[in-house]
Specification:
The complex is a heterodimer of chains A (145) and B (159).
Chain A: H1 2-7, E1 11-16, E2 22-27, E3 29-32, E4 35-41, H2 45-52, E5 55-68, E6 76-91, H3 95-108, H4 118-122, E7 124-139
Antiparallel strand pairs in A: 1-2, 1-5, 3-4, 4-7, 5-6, 6-7
Chain B: E1 7-8, H1 11-20, E2 23-29, E3 35-45, E4 49-53, H2 57-65, E5 68-80, E6 90-104, H3 109-122, H4 124-127, E7 140-153
Antiparallel strand pairs in B: 1-7, 2-3, 2-5, 3-4, 4-7, 5-6, 6-7
Classes of the chains: A alpha+beta (145), B alpha+beta (159).
Chain lengths: 145, 159
């Protein structure tokens, strides 16, 4: 599962609103030791929903494609490797925690970690997701040993 | 949408993205307002509804209790890199996000029609048969789209 989490370039984040309405959005992320880190704007629907209900679901999908079975035309299959999980989101306020989280995120993309001026950190929403449960799935690819 | 510069409202553009994508992420809301996600094969039809094949029983059960769904299809996504500035990292992508109500179709005439639509897209030879058995595509749902919007970043501006 960690291999899939380290390989993927974005995840889908699932939120649940007050009225029982779900919301799905794609996000860049970083992963380290059971925590996911995502970032975004300090205002908007996503942050409003997270403040009201911090429960999240996340999903990472790699190599997804529909496979047709040439021998049996009634068969088609979705080939993929995925990790789906649940967790609780915490909006980080401490600037050094935010810096550390964004370093983890930039490491995920093998990108530069500096400069990260305080003004930029103050203007950015950084969310730490504590993973409570996750499941990996493999279909159509070799299963890991 | 906060980033109106990235919003695409053209239904034609939205239709193209939904027809290019073979699967989308469906989001549902379970007990205790816990969200859940799954990747699902789908068909977009008549510019107003989706037929989705739900492979996971847990998602299907949640939909029976709460039919509200959010869906998202992403195409052509890639990271925009920058050698020296973290703030210049971004994603180039086209996506469509929408909301709607799921209708469970099992054992109805509509289920047969929905199964045929799915097969026409993914297994056209099987769709030509006169009768279809309730096979593995029986967990099909129809989602009437109530709200939908597109987002584009890093591609030519479109409206």
């Amino acid at each position: 599962m960690e291999e899939v989490l380290k390989e993927a370039e974005w995840l889908e984040l699932g939120l649940a609103g007050k009225d029982g309405c779900p919301y799905v959005l794609p996000m860049n992320y970083g992963y380290e030791s059971g925590f996911l880190y995502v970032h975004g704007a300090r205002e908007g629907k996503k942050v409003d929903m997270l403040r009201e209900n911090p429960k999240v679901c996340f999903q990472v999908v790699l190599g997804a494609e529909i496979q047709r079975d040439e021998n049996d035309p009634s068969e088609f299959n979705m080939k993929y490797r995925s990790v789906t999980g649940f967790g609780e989101a915490e909006i980080l306020e401490d600037i050094e925690e935010k810096r550390k989280a964004l370093h983890i995120l930039m490491h995920h993309y093998n990108g530069p970690t500096e400069p990260m001026p305080d003004a930029m950190l103050n203007g950015t929403l950084v969310v730490k997701i504590s993973i409570s449960e996750m499941t990996g799935k493999v279909n159509g690819y070799p299963k890991p040993e | 949408m906060r980033r109106s510069d990235r919003e695409v409202t053209s239904r034609e553009w939205i239709g193209v993205v939904l027809k290019e994508a073979e699967w989308l992420t469906i989001g549902v809301c379970g007990e205790n307002r816990t969200p859940a996600l799954a990747p699902v094969p789908f068909v977009y039809a008549a510019d107003r509804f989706l037929v989705c094949v739900i492979g996971e029983d847990s998602i299907y059960d949640m939909l029976k209790a709460n039919p509200k769904v959010c869906f998202q299809a992403v195409s052509r996504a890639e990271v925009i890199r920058h050698d020296s500035l973290p703030s210049k990292f971004s994603m180039r992508y086209k996506s469509v996000t929408g909301f709607g109500q799921a209708q469970i179709l099992r054992d109805t005439q509509q289920a047969e029609e929905a199964r045929r639509m799915v097969l026409e897209r993914f297994a056209p030879a099987a769709a030509k048969r006169e009768t279809l058995s309730a096979d593995r595509t029986e967990n099909v749902i129809k989602v009437e789209i109530e709200e939908v919007f597109g987002k584009s970043n890093g591609y030519q501006p479109e409206k």
